[in-house]
Write a structure and sequence with these properties.
Low-confidence stretches: 1-5, 54-79
Largest sheet: 8 strands, mixed
Structural class: alpha/beta
Radius of gyration: 25 Å
Order of helices and strands: HEEEHEEHHEHEHEHEEHEHEEEEEEEHH
Strand content: 15-25%
Helix content: 25-40%
Mean pLDDT: 87
Distance between the termini: 40 Å
Length: 438
Amino acid sequence: MASERDELNRRRRARVEQERRRKAVRRKLRIRLVLAAVVILACAAVIYNLGRNGEIPLIEAAPTEVEIYGQAGETTEETTVPKSNLNREPTVIHLAAAGDLNVTDKVVWSGQSGTIYDYTSAFMDVAPIFSEADLALLNFEGNIYGQPYGSATMSAPQELMVALKNAGVDVVQMANTTAIYNGISGLQTTLANIRAAGIEPVGAYSTNNEFAKNNGYTICEVQGLKIAMVAFTKGFGGLGLPAGSEDCVNLLYEDYYENYETLNTNKINKVLKAVSAEKPDLVIALLHWGSEFNDAISDTQEKIASIMQKNGVDVIIGTHPHLVQEIEYDETTGFFCAYSLGDFFGDGSRSGTAYSIILDLEITKNYDTGETRVTNYEYTPIYTLQETDCPDNQRRVVRMETAMTAYDINFVDKIIESCNENMKYSLSRIVSRINGEG
């Protein structure tokens, strides 16, 4: 177990060292630019003085910004970019996004040995995906609220969050149906424990004052890019926020405790307007929406997606149905919407919930145009192994293609034959679901 942690820490240190080197290069470049500017200014002063003395003609200074023209030669003032950014190499980052981590008895037991909890092995196989991404996130459907642990309380040990951090997860969505399962005190304790593990929760707040301070969104700077994240949930499974805590979780509906018919447009617009004022490079919305164990995408979801896009959202990552659903990507605009990523880690006992995907979104900032957008996407099919699926009897998340290759070459700890057949079927279902074929 120690060697596994060492490997995770090594990957994290490598990422930190890589970022340190990038910053050092950027510092050197800034110094060189400053020195070059000093030389240019000195030359300009000499030329100006000579011009005043009549020795050479004066030349007007070039503008500091370059205008970008449309197809008909019309200027587009809003797309002007600083001259210093022209011909600059684009910045490319990668976002890893996974679906629901559901706190249940089986999930809690997967890391339990007597009174000790350790979930390192549960995420070992997918840790490289998270740790090698520039930003990694998932939906945490549960609480970190202390004992008793399991399905009845939906509370998990703090060690679960520590293992996620060690695996490379940076952000967890907390605007979901379990946010107030243990009341506002449960939410407050959970948020504190998530942050204590070094992970940032999005979409939920300890108090109304904390919401007011943060305006309902989170900003992350990644490789110099300003990424804004918002998160909303459809409700809490019939529970309601108590008076005085109405802003503790971002909600998609006004009637969230019963019918889900009236969109909370005032709250949505308020949060997204505040985000727009930050002038981020990219806006990501994490939405807990749709219906559980249902493939259908409702008209209301499509309306929500439209509202989000019109208010500046570039990426929608959906959760809650526990099934992989359709992905829509507009290459022209760069708008990306994954309606549901399925269950990242859970019981996997219901049909379609044992398999899901981890998204890899390629995000590019073009300094010539000033535009930042999704320029490509890929995904890794993953599978939650049951205790009976392999000889070591450990419930864990694995990459399907890696596990199937290990089976084919008769790896010592390979999955059993029936699990291998299930994975073959699951791979075909993932493709169908993503393409909207049901």
